[in-house]
Amino acid sequence: MQGLMMQQPLVVASLLTHAERHHGEQLIVSRRVEGDVHRYTYRQLAKRARRMANALATLGVQPGERVGTLAWNGYRHMELYFAVSGSGSVLHTLNPRLHVDQLAYIIEHAQDRVVFFDMTFLPLIESVAPLVRSPKVYVAMTDRANMPQESSLADRLLCYEDLINLHDDAFDWPLVDENSACSLCYTSGTTGNPKGVLYSHRSTVLHTYAAALPDAMNCCASDAILPVVPMFHVNAWGLPYIACMVGAKLVFPGPALDGKSLYELIEEEQVTMSAGVPTVWQGLLAHVDALGATFSSMRRTVIGGAACSTAMTEAFQNCHRVDVLHAWGMTELSPIGTICSFKGFQRSLPMPQQLEIQAKQGRSLYGIDMKVVGPQGEELPWDGKSAGDLMVRGHWVAQQYFASDDASPLRDGWFPTGDIATIDGYGFMQITDRSKDVIKSGGEWISSSAIENVAYLHPGVSTAVCIAARHPKWDERPLLLVVKKPDSKLAGDELLAYFDGRVARWWKPDAVVFVDSVPIGATGKVLKNQLRERFGSYYLTV
Ligand code: ADP
């Protein structure tokens, strides 16, 4: 057919090839677990990624098989992003903040063939390894000099730099199907176990295009981008891919995410844009305020994962001239759905009105459609007032969970987000509540059902309900409401101590409130929204 365009598949490796050929000199700077700072270029990244791709082939990793990573944001993690996905395998980023039992469940469910880990997580991976059968080898992401003298992983433990040194950088990225899987990320199940979201090459590249646009994250070759959001948290919101696409300098913070470390890195590397959850920015702002300092290069920051308060937006914009881009997304959305950037006429509005707009989660990127629906599934008007279930569909929205027997979560082709929202006449969406039964503390999920299950193991508990209560530092923290057995003398501290070792430390509820009963709805389910109304401010008042 005349005039038809070339068929070039949208694959992750093409992002790296582009960066190598067109931005080969651009820098990637990483603060390492070892404490020092590492610098190299995209050209070197690409070479080492190809060496690692050869190493993966030697290790017997087959196309489509999963490779786990348990790592901070750094250049070796970046190499794996491309070595694994580029060679047709699936990069499975693991969240080190999870409890060993959950990590074991996720590794086994994903059938990870190899797990790469930063040395920080050696004790964690040594606790997980006896619980899982799938990984054949574990790779410590360090050099020979920093390898542990002894490890229970014994001869299954390999050294990352040895693998790099042993392999050649001649490797042709295979022509993979753009609809095949490139990466996998688990999200907290609202009931039961965590669920895997499998991203395709195509969905990832399309998300990269859209998220880099001026009205989205607004990234370009003269940017120095600091992804504070972890690479195990929905691919650092796509920034590793975006940086390759636009040729931006990348600055990786490693494990040091406190205000002082971040501020020093931002200034030393002249970072122009960053992204992360509100909790991290609180620490940064507190540090900068205490110093009486400001930012010399930072121009904007993307804030999402939890609502960004107007106070935070004001602090960044008015005190530091750093624009805030409030964003909303989900693991199931790769993750970005909306970003709050002004339309033309809004740029000249008075500041209070602008701040009101910026409290909203923003408008859809091209590639994502959204609507809010009422109880019968009817679409509600875009009037900024009618709140309903937020539904989305688009190029980078999951239609089914990975290796799941459950029915597709879609309803009439739309993905129900579990968020309650309004949409205004200009298309700006605002989250007003959440219908899903999870707690989001410092941007990370806590499963309320997992907390309730532990509480029910205690002989003094008759009914246990865990809700998200608002918290000044962490946005939300779990609050446990308990009806005691009639003859029980159970005390709050005793029940809280019962969680030690049974869940990750930060999953333990901050408080227990004993109640006489909990409200039950017509279908026999606890009416958590009523409990949230009654107890949701608990941590703001104690
Ligand atoms: P991420 O934290 O990367 O956005 P998750 O899948 O961990 O992805 O969490 C998604 C959920 O987090 C959303 O469904 C919503 O409940 C909440 N969330 C994300 N961004 C925001 C935001 N800007 N404001 C309020 N809630 C948000």
UniProtKB/TrEMBL annotation:
UniProt KW Ion transport keyword: no
All copies of domain AMP-binding enzyme C-terminal, residue ranges: 451-525
GO molecular function: long-chain fatty acid-CoA ligase activity
PROSITE patterns in the record: AMP_BINDING
InterPro entries: AMP-bd_C (IPR025110), AMP-bd_C_sf (IPR045851), AMP-binding_CS (IPR020845), AMP-dep_synth/lig_dom (IPR000873), ANL_N_sf (IPR042099)
Listed SUPFAM superfamilies: Acetyl-CoA synthetase-like (SSF56801)
Residue ranges annotated for the AMP-dependent synthetase/ligase domain, each copy included: 18-402
Record EC number: 6.2.1.3
Domain of life: Bacteria
Chain segments annotated as transmembrane: none
Keywords: Fatty acid metabolism, Ligase, Lipid metabolism
Keyword Ribonucleoprotein: no
Enzyme class: ligase
NCBIfam families: PRK06187.1, PRK07008.1
Similarity comment: Belongs to the ATP-dependent AMP-binding enzyme family.
Protein name: Long-chain-fatty-acid--CoA ligase
Source lineage: Bacteria, Pseudomonadati, Pseudomonadota, Betaproteobacteria, Burkholderiales
